[in-house]
Write a structure and sequence with these properties.
Elements: H1 7-29, H2 33-55, H3 59-85, H4 93-112
Helix pairs in contact: 1-2, 1-4, 2-3, 3-4
Amino acid sequence: MKPEITTVFLKNSMQFTIGVIDFSEPLQQMKKEAIASKLLDSAIGVSSMLQSCKLAEKDSDSKAYLQKAAKHISNTVYWLDQCQKSENYPHNAELLNHGKQIQSEINLLLQIK
């Protein structure tokens, strides 16, 4: 059975990605390009893999995309959490919580599958 990726959930993940893009800009200005790059790659991967999951024709492809989305959101949450814990990086608790919410929803979808 193919996981149900709703349009609302997909839009929510895209809003999260835009938030990470906005969060990464000051990181780049602070010459913290390595973390900014990791955050951007992983966050863009989340919404990209969810879009691919929604459009997949085969259940097996859908599950594979969802598993990749789970990996990307896990990485994104990890890096946002590291920034949150550091005195030398900007913080955004709301963005971190948004990422954790998406992570929980993806994990729920994987359990259903």
